[in-house]
Amino acid sequence: MAAVLAFARAGIKAQLVAPRPAPRELSAPTDTYHPRVYAISPASQAFLADLGVWEGLNHRRVAPVSAMEIQGDTGARLHLDAWQAATAHLAWIVESSELERVMSQALAWSGAQWIDDTIARWQPGQAVTASGKVLPCELCVGADGAASPLRKMAGLSHHSRPYGDVGLVAHLDTTLPHQNTAFQWFGEEGVLALLPLPDSVRGPQVSMVWSVRAARAQDVLSLMPEERARRLPGMLAQVAGDRLGALKLNSEVHGFPLFVEQADVIAPGIALVGDAAHRVHPLAGQGLNLGLGDVQALARVLASRESFRSLGDMQVLRRYRRARAEPVAAMRAVTDGLHKLFTLRSAPVVWLRNAGLTWVDAVPALKRVLVGQASRS
Questions:
Q1: Region 84-96: what's the mean pLDDT?
Q2: How many whole angstroms from its chain centre is CA 324?
Q3: Domain count, the chain
Q4: Which CATH number goes with the domain that contains 323?
């Protein structure tokens, strides 16, 4: 949806081919939150505002992040504040359903055609839907997720490596306020993140993303709901201590396996964006931000192409690939490197990584650089 909106603003006619979801009404004042939430970076927020999406969100359901607290596995701690980069917020936590609701409305206002179908066959210059509709196209953009049928049709190479971890997501009530701070713990149980959500009538709440080994995740997911609600807060307390007070599960728990993936992103007449092009470990919460960055770069490259070049011209598409190669590779290196670093258990490595956190926390200039870089992601 973001891609079609971006192309429309760039003066490029685009059609969206995808199953149309059920219409979403304006979010009612309810304490039930969608299980999937995103950490929207300042760069992505500016892009969504440019698309006319940001102001349409129900901001009572959006939680700003003004600080981050990162803790190692021996008590080392790094605290980052938005004010260190002279900005109000580091990120915003937004529900997937809320973004989709507003984007659907924006698409309807844009006049872009939404074809309620799927692509069954593709070749340069033409796509055929499952219902047999033939769609001429200079460029077909694969924004169809990690399994990307379009990527397979185009024969683009794809490399995937499983982490052997599962990301567990759920929402929790807390007895202490989160103060718009995102918390993250690196430890033997994996990586635990507790992200701020708007307060409910019950009090403060957070969204949990817990990356753990598959066997440990299965132990949690296999429990009966009542038993899981009783035992999960204790498991989390072993990692988070009483930093946010007592924790209480207020939603279902979902699990998804984690991978690092990379694909060839272009071929004549085709370009991939988002999870179809790449996936990184969720410990930095940058998956959607990378995808929105792809869309923004592709729209910019297409709009600035020479008049004699088509949208699917390889010379044009190579510019898109170059524009995204460095930011995607950098994020993959950081997330993959951190995951590997914190899975090593030798005493020297444990000491070194925790000493590193402590050292960075003691150097204000370096913290300003980190916050500034995060704000531009």
A1: 87
A2: 16
A3: 1
A4: 3.50.50.60
Whether the predicted pLDDT of 174 surpasses 80 = yes
Q: What angle do CA 276, 47, 319 make, to 5 degrees?
A: 55
> Confidence band (pLDDT; 50, 70, 90) for 92?
very high
Q: Please give the radius of gyration of the chain, using alpha carbons only, rounded to the nearest integer.
A: 21
**Within 13 Å of residue 317, how many CA atoms lie on the same side as its CB?**
19
Collect all residues with Cβ–Cβ distance below 8 Å to 214 and sequence separation of at least 6: 164, 165, 166, 257
Residue written as token pair 């505002």: 49
Instruction: Name the more confident of 176 and 357.
Output: 176
Task: Give me the percent of the chain exceeding a pLDDT of 90.
Answer: 76
From residue 319, give the alpha-carbon distance in Å to each of 154, 299, 323, 330. Answer: 20, 11, 6, 18
Is 245 inside a domain boundary?
A: no
Domain span holding position 140: 2-64+87-160+261-329
Do β-strands 67-71 and 181-187 pair in parallel, antiparallel, or remain unpaired?
Answer: parallel
Check if the beta carbon of residue 205 is closer than 8 Å to that of residue 197.
yes
- Are 281 and 258 a contacting pair, CB within 8 Å? yes
Asked which of 26-40, 139-153, 254-268, 279-293 is least confident by mean pLDDT, the reply is 26-40
| Alpha carbon distance 286, 270 (integer Å) | 24
Q: Which amino acid is at 158?
A: H
